[in-house]
From TrEMBL:
Protein's recorded name: DNA-binding protein
Keyword vocabulary terms for this entry: DNA-binding, Phosphoprotein
Alphabetized Gene3D superfamilies for the sequence: 3.40.50.2300
Domain Response regulatory residue range list: 7-116
UniProt keyword DNA-binding present: yes
Pfam family name, one: Response_reg
Coiled coil: none
Keyword Phosphoprotein appears in the UniProt entry: yes
PANTHER family: RESPONSE REGULATORY DOMAIN-CONTAINING PROTEIN, STRESS RESPONSE REGULATOR PROTEIN 1
Gene Ontology MF terms: DNA binding
Annotated positions of the 4-aspartylphosphate modification: D54
Entries under InterPro entries matching the protein: Bact_response_regulator, CheY-like_superfamily, HalX_domain, Sig_transdc_resp-reg_receiver
């Protein structure tokens, strides 16, 4: 797990199963449980990093909870953990990953790790592009002599170099995870085919 303790919300209408998941994760995560969709929507806020969400629940379904989370613009990752076999309806759904029950402790820990790593990569990539954009603008607008004499520009270049290494390291870590490796290859191959 990451150094900061991630906050995980387990949304599962079978209390025994929800409590089992919580027991598996409580040593490494701050865990909250909700036993129905309404309770989940009351519990979720900006402090939640990952939601483990059952699809089939009485009252508000997991699908409705997921839609509401996305409509609220909450910046959390959502993994569906469900007995519902995936079908083509999942294409338009806003979840980040999908696990079919039964799941093991190792699978839950791994999916949380992967979702947090993706979040870290997203933030690193956003900062990298923001820094690269600033550098490109200054490269276009300032002379080489002006850039060379600027302490701020030197610091920008250093920050950009550090962020580039972090992005590469995080991408390498993502690639080393078995399930993600094939996905990244598929994305790379797809982009090559489209060129």
């Amino acid at each position: 797990m990451t150094t900061d303790t991630p906050s995980v919300l387990i949304v599962e209408d079978e209390p025994d199963l929800a409590n089992l998941y919580a027991a598996w994760l409580e040593a490494e995560c701050d865990v909250e449980t909700s036993y129905d969709g309404t309770e989940a929507l009351d519990a979720i806020d900006e402090s939640i990093d990952v939601v483990l969400l059952d699809r089939r629940m009485p009252g508000l379904s997991g699908d409705t909870v997921l839609d509401t989370i996305r409509e609220r613009g909450l910046d959390c990752r959502v993994a569906m953990v469900t007995a519902v076999e995936p079908d083509f309806d999942i294409i338009e759904m806003g979840f980040d990953d999908y696990l079919v029950k039964p799941v093991s402790k190792d699978e839950l820990v791994e999916i949380i790790d992967q979702l947090l790593l993706r979040t870290s990569y997203d933030a690193q990539l956003q900062e990298f592009f923001a820094l690269a954009s600033k550098k490109a603008l200054l490269d276009d607008q300032k002379t080489e002599a002006e850039r060379r004499s600027s302490q701020e520009y030197a610091e920008l270049k250093d920050r950009l170099a550090v962020r580039r290494v972090q992005v590469n390291d995080t991408m390498q870590e993502l690639l080393e995870q078995d399930g993600y490796r094939q996905l990244c290859r598929d994305i790379t191959n797809e982009s090559v085919l489209q060129e």
